[in-house]
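Homework help board

Subject: predicted structure for assignment chain

Our instructor gave us this sequence and asked us to write out the predicted structure in token form, then describe one feature. I got the tokens but I'm not sure how to describe them. Can anyone check?
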Amino acid sequence: MNDVLEDRLIDLFERAGGAVTVEDRLRLVGTGPMLEPVSTGSRPRPWMLIAAAVLVLGGAAGVAAVVRSDGSPDHGPVAVQPADPPDPLYLLSNDLPGWTSGNGSTGLGSAGSYVGIVVGIPVGEMFLDPAAVHLTTDPPDGFSTDTWRALSVDGGPAFMSPEGEMPQMVVTQQRGPMWLTSSSDDRTVSRIVPAFEALVLDSAGNLTLRSSDFAVIAAYDIMSGSTGHSTYSEAYGPDDEYVVVETVSGEVPLLALLADRAVHLAPMTVNGAAAWHASGIDLDGEWHAIAWEISPQQSVLIDSHLIPFETVLALAESLEVVDEATWTAATS
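My token output:
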């Protein structure tokens, strides 16, 4: 284990107690969440729309297999593009007293291409400091050895984007003719460097995870570049709670979007459907997000700052599918 990863693991496991607390809260929500009064806090941004723009960082690489160091496959959920585009998805909260919706908008955008994996440090069922590693044939848009800072990373030349040039801090590394690229909201290079150094890219384009300290959370091979329908709305609670609700129809690397920002990433369920709980602390305070597919190729992501996880989960479980006219009338 290199010194950077060792130092990072010491810090992570000093925080592991807090991670376990979050996990315990996930188990307790079945007893009936309470909507607690909270301050409004900072307004979240359209997460999927901004993060998706960052994900399209270079040319697609083609299929990248992910294997363990012993050669056995180690795939998480693998994206498969459907034959027909999915229908638009409109969601509203139902049977949650005092909650209303507003500030709705819709759009169309390219789902882009995404070939890569999401890795993290496993602690029980949770993953700490997840990192999404994107494999491309080209460096990120705007890359320049003149303006990007060189980093000391095993495996090949690596660089970090200049402050303020992109919505997130981006790290990229050349591996032969290919590039590994990852981004992070907290602008902490030490979250990305160990993930890069844990991966080996062979001449056939296979990514091998050679470190037992990491695990592959998901693998994606999205080559569609299709156009998907998206919605954005805001849900307001009776005590000034504020939650963003986003949907996207089409193939979306949800865990890659979450990994760019999350410190903790844990599996959970929403009304029986497999989902992920992402959480962390940024300049605006503690935040929680929940992401899942409500049906194949119809993704949902909700998040908010300074609101208890139980409240966010209660809203997630109250969402129901409505038609466009009903959604427009409620969110206008």
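Reply (TA_rk): Your tokens look well-formed. For the description, you could write something like this. Helices lie at 3-14, 16-28, 47-55, 193-197, 254-259, 309-318, 324-331. That's the kind of observation they're looking for.
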